[in-house]
């Protein structure tokens, strides 16, 4: 039985997961889990990528028999590499405040609708294109190569520099029509396209482990490293266990990525206006989706309570939140004030206070407000999805860590009036490993065989809508009319 190692780096934790391939399905088991967080130094927010690297090496050590390794992570962020092949400083976190002004500057010199039609990518401040426009010129001058975070780890594992296609699409620098770098855009962002290298097809075998990595992990140089679907959302969507047509997905973790898979992009003004994006999926598919600020609001609240000395058990908190009255006060999770790390319960209270709603006091009340608001935001995104594609959404798959959040899954079903199929919770690792399995020929090629293996590997939990959607409709209208200030 072949073992594949899926390294999955999220914004709040990383994992090494072993996937055992047999009888056309993959069985996952967690080998190691380690925390991740952004670190602020002198007004800049960084990732501790060397700490992550050390945790990945530790996590791989028990997997001496791994046939392959694939690395995925959150999108858009990158390390810069100098002429000697060394990393220039720590990667900057996409939540750093430098990006929004750079985005506004770059958009001012162009037609935003035209740019959206060229790349298909929503103008999120954190897109790599805007991060580069905000980059320190001395770092850029010293850089020979840019590597997105999973490609950086792939380089450290193998010595080979790649730029895997699903994650490349999130840079906002890829021409939607040709699938290659938009050279004019690269120059507008202040870089030569050569800095980015050429785009590597998803599923390419990068090579074996460097001797120093084999020695540090006990793995052999026979272990292959595969450029898996290295954007975590692409990997998660590759593992959605669809049961039929008319299904949307919510890849729910730090973010809720709400969308459908399509053959063609949607780059209308209405899609731009509604905040949708067209990212590249495995097999060249399009992930037409909207970023909704997801469990970030809850995770940051838990971190704030921990800093205040409150040790809150998540399961108990969710139970208390479920027992609290529904839709007492709601926030727009996408309000920019919630984007940066900090005192999330305080910001939620301020929002409710400003908008004349009851102010949530206890952690359970704050959690109820966050989860109600997320279910409502899911509803808004699903409604927009139907309107923009002209295709009905009948069922919703919630995959990722949020699949274990029972109240959120149930309230998403209640708010949307649709059945929610919850799971797998480790969809990202499953998708990562499925792409590896296909690259090694352990599963037949193509999306149909991958879907069949995904469905055989997962048993989603079914949430049917309870009660009327009326209270959610009312809350959605109420939210639209709230007098929201700028902070
Ligand atoms: C989710 C994710 C998402 C991106 C964001 C930066 O982890 O990759 O798809 O938009 O992080």
Task: Describe the protein's topology.
Elements: E1 2-9, E2 13-22, E3 25-35, E4 38-41, E5 44-47, H1 49-60, E6 66-73, E7 78-81, H2 99-108, H3 112-119, H4 128-133, H5 137-142, E8 145-148, H6 149-158, H7 165-169, H8 183-188, E9 204-208, H9 211-217, E10 224-227, H10 232-238, E11 247-252, E12 255-262, H11 269-273, E13 276-280, E14 286-293, H12 296-307, H13 314-323, H14 344-354, H15 363-389, E15 395-399, H16 406-416, E16 419-422, H17 427-439, H18 447-457, E17 461-463, H19 470-480
Parallel strand pairs: 1-6, 6-10, 11-15, 15-16
Antiparallel strand pairs: 1-2, 2-3, 4-5, 7-8, 9-10, 11-12, 12-14, 13-14, 16-17
Helix pairs in contact: 10-17, 12-15, 13-15, 15-16, 17-18
This protein binds 6-deoxy-beta-L-fructofuranose.
Domain Carbohydrate kinase FGGY N-terminal: 5-236
GO molecular function, one term: ATP binding
Family: Belongs to the FGGY kinase family.
């Amino acid at each position: 039985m072949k073992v594949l190692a899926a390294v999955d780096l999220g914004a709040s934790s990383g994992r090494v997961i072993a996937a055992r391939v047999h009888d056309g399905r993959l069985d996952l088991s967690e080998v190691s889990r380690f925390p991740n967080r952004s670190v602020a130094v002198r007004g800049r927010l960084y990732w501790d990528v060397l700490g992550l690297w050390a945790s990945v090496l530790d996590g791989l050590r028990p997997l001496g028999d791994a046939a392959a390794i694939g690395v995925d992570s959150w999108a858009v962020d990158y390390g810069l590499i100098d002429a000697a092949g060394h990393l220039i400083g720590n990667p900057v976190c996409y939540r750093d405040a430098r990006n929004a002004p750079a985005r506004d500057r770059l958009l001012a010199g162009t037609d935003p609708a035209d740019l959206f039609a060229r790349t298909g990518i929503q103008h999120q401040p954190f897109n790599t294109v805007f991060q580069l426009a905000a980059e320190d010129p001395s770092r850029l001058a010293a850089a020979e190569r840019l590597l997105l975070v999973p490609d950086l780890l792939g380089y450290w594992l193998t010595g080979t520099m790649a730029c895997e296609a699903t994650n490349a699409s999130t840079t906002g620098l890829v021409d939607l029509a040709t699938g290659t770098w938009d050279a004019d855009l690269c120059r507008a962002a202040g870089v030569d396209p050569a800095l980015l290298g050429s785009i590597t097809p998803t599923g390419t075998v990068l090579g074996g482990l460097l001797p120093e990595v084999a020695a540090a992990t006990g793995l052999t140089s026979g272990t292959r490293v595969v450029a898996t679907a290295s954007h975590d959302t692409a990997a998660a969507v590759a593992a959605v266990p669809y049961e039929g047509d008319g299904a949307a997905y919510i890849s729910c973790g730090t973010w809720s990525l709400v969308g459908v898979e399509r053959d063609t992009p949607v780059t209308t003004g209405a899609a731009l206006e509604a905040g949708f994006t067209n990212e590249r999926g495995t097999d060249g598919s399009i992930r037409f989706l909207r970023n909704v600020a997801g469990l970030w609001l809850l995770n940051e609240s838990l971190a704030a309570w921990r800093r205040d000395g409150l040790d809150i058990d998540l399961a108990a908190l969710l139970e208390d939140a479920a027992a609290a009255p529904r839709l007492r006060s709601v926030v727009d999770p996408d309000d920019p004030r919630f984007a940066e790390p900090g005192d999330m319960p305080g910001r939620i209270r301020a929002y409710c206070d400003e908008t004349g709603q009851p102010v949530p006091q206890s952690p359970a009340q704050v959690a109820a407000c966050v989860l109600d608001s997320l279910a409502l935001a899911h509803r808004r995104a699903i409604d927009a999805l139907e309107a923009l594609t002209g295709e009905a959404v009948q069922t919703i798959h919630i995959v990722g860590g949020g699949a274990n959040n029972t109240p959120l899954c149930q309230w998403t079903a209640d708010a949307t009036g649709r059945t929610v199929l919850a799971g797998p919770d480790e969809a990202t690792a499953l998708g990562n490993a499925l792409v590896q399995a296909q690259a090694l020929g352990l599963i037949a090629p193509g999306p149909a065989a991958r879907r069949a293996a995904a469905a055989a590997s997962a048993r989603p939990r079914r949430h049917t809508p309870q009660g009327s959607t009326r209270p959610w409709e009312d809350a959605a209208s109420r939210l639209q009319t709230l007098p929201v200030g700028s902070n």
